[in-house]
Amino acid sequence: MNPEVTDWRREFAEEARSERPDVVTLCLLLGAVADPALGQRGIDAAHIELDRLAGLLPYGLTGARPWALAAAELLGATCGFHGSPPDYQRLESSLLHEVLRRRRGLPILLSVVWIEVARRAGAPVYGVALPGHFVVGFGPPRDRVLADPFDAGRLLTGADAELLVAGATGAPLQESMLSPAAPLDVILRILNNIRAWAAARPERSDVALWAVELSLLLPSHPARLRFERAQLLVQRGDFLAGAAELDRYADVVEPVEPTTAESVRRRARAARAMLN
């Protein structure tokens, strides 16, 4: 493994376990793992660009709606940040430094740009993790205004939000869905998107592996990610490491699912047999 990539992973783990993990820092460290050429200079350039954009927002705005409109005017209309269906087919759409460069991306990455630019300018802003579509919220619950950065910052009515949720889940919008998204939940959702992108492209198991491994560095993560990592290691020919990971996963699930644990151990034995 490239030593520089290892350093980025260590920094990612330290930031994820800090008292107040920063979404932008984690996104850029993730980007450095994905693209080692980014380096510290590229990370610094991304922060400078976010500062520059924040400086272009009007000074002294009050109220949720003026902030939402100002962000949409700057980022959506003037700077051209938005998304479209083809962006779901590009890994770059999940990498913050590439989204800042291309001004295109997935809803959650565009939302990170909206949130960070507006936050640096003093706006009351936060992410809203609606099922299937991440958006941005401005202001307190009683005066909340939602904006959709994927649609260039279009302001959403209550009916718009209900349609988004119904389209993704078939269920009605719940007030709890409008709560500010926690930083690590945002990062896990980004990594889930990357894993889904890679899963549709078996030739990019390298991307799937680092996305799983970064997910495992988060303080809280689904235990099944260990099984996914083990499968990827075996798929990539690292049979011993994959078998060891399978055994560790079996140890985790055995107390509650002994049959599953035995099945996983059989897979571990099969992986080791591939070396013979």
| Share of β-strand residues | 5-15%
The share of residues in helices is: 55-70%
Summed over residues and divided by their number, the pLDDT gives a mean of 94
General shape: globular
Question: By helix and strand content, what is the structural category?
Answer: alpha+beta
Helical run tally: 12
The end-to-end span amounts to 26 Å
Give the oligomeric state of the chains in this entry, treating copies of one chain as homo and distinct chains as hetero.
Answer: single chain
State the total count of DSSP E strands: 4
Largest sheet: 4 strands, antiparallel
Ranges where pLDDT stays below 50 over 5 or more residues in a row are: none
Order of strands across the biggest sheet? 1-2-3-4
Rg, rounded, reads: 20 Å
Write the element-wise H/E pattern from the N-terminal end onward.
Answer: HHHHHHEEEEHHHHHH
Family: Belongs to the UPF0162 family.
Protein name: Transglutaminase-like domain-containing protein
Domain Protein SirB1 N-terminal: 70-192
